[in-house]
Specification:
The protein is 52% helix and 22% strand. The chain is of the alpha/beta class.
């Protein structure tokens, strides 16, 4: 408990002391007629009892007046309760990194459906989306604007369906920008796609000092059939090692038609990051989301926040009670 305006309380104490110790001059009655032989009245027991009662009532009036005045100054001085809180945010960073080559469309469509339901349940996590084929593009940087993420996922789903229906105009949402350089480098550059997503984490952290802590929980959901059709700069293993160096855990989701040799390579790469590999199915998509949900969130400690709460209840209650008693004894003195 603290006092906000302590100076007001000092002024109140001085004023009360002055009222107590400044001598009051006795009032001289200039009107009326003096009564003779009052000593006989003063000697009466009845008079003495009335005088004692009067003095007690007068003392109580003065006392309650001091209480009322003192509580009034306490109210003006503002009694407050001061608490210090450390706000903590528990946070995960999750990137959805999808190979958007046609052979992965069915898998991505299933992932998008499940991921939309997961995003609706998130509270403090940041989510980002990267798609790739020859080259990678960031459809959404890390953000906690879940409405925006859901909108992007809706557009991805619409583009996948449009591609299946040969609607190239709507399918351009996932095609344009992801095939830059395919003549020179080919398509489905799996390692480059993962490395680009890892690098997107680094760029995000570099632009925000608060988010540069290496203790943050970073996760990539990586979907592909691991069928390389070109000359990538990074192999999948090298990209996985890059992710590990950044303390990023990668969960892979493979198509059901993945070749055994590609599956083995994919699985070994995920193990490098301490992640896992899942195969295409509704149950496995749900499992990876559940695995992510059970991951411990990183703690972002913010500065201490001082919370001041006014607590006038006690002083106000004393004021009301004191004033009530003051009125009662004032009337008794008049009688």
């Amino acid at each position: 408990m603290e006092i906000m305006n302590i100076k007001v309380l000092y002024i109140g104490v001085i004023l009360i002391l002055l009222l107590l110790f400044i001598p009051f001059r006795k009032r001289k009655y200039k009107k009326g007629i003096k009564i003779a032989n009052t000593k006989y009245v003063k000697a009466m027991s009845f008079y003495k009892k009335l005088l004692i009662k009067y003095r007690i009532n007068l003392f109580l009036i003065i006392l309650t007046f001091i209480v009322v005045l003192g509580s009034s100054f306490f109210l003006v001085a503002r009694l407050i309760k001061v608490d210090e809180e450390v706000n903590e945010k528990y946070n995960r960073d999750i990137f959805l990194c999808m190979d958007v080559s046609p052979s992965v469309n069915d898998l991505n469509q299933e992932i998008v459906k499940t991921f939309k339901e997961t995003v609706k349940k998130l509270e403090e996590d940041r989510v980002g989306i990267v798609i790739f084929n020859t080259s990678a593009i960031v459809l959404s940087p890390l953000t906690d604007d879940y409405d925006y993420i859901l909108d992007v996922l809706d557009k991805i789903e619409e583009a996948i369906i449009a591609y299946k229906n040969h609607d190239n105009l709507k399918a351009d949402y996932i095609l344009k920008g992801t095939t830059i350089g395919y003549v020179e480098y080919g398509m489905s550059l799996i390692g480059d796609g993962l490395a680009s997503c890892v690098n997107t984490f680094a760029n995000t952290d570099r632009n925000n000092k608060e988010l540069m802590s290496e203790d943050r929980t970073r996760i990539i959901i990586f979907s592909t059939d691991n069928q390389v059709s070109g000359s990538p700069i990074f192999t999948l293993k090298e990209a996985a090692e890059f992710a590990k160096s950044k303390k990023i855990k990668v969960y892979g989701i493979a198509t059901s038609s993945i070749r055994p040799i590609n599956k083995q390579e994919f699985q070994e790469a995920m193990q490098i990051t301490n992640g896992k590999l899942y195969e295409n199915a509704k149950e496995t998509v749900s499992s990876i989301i559940q695995e992510i949900t059970s991951t411990n969130k990183s703690i972002l400690k913010t500065e201490k926040e001082t919370i001041q709460t006014d607590i006038p209840q006690q002083a106000f209650l004393i004021l009301i009670m004191g004033f009530s008693i003051y009125v009662i004894f004032s009337r008794m003195v008049r009688k």
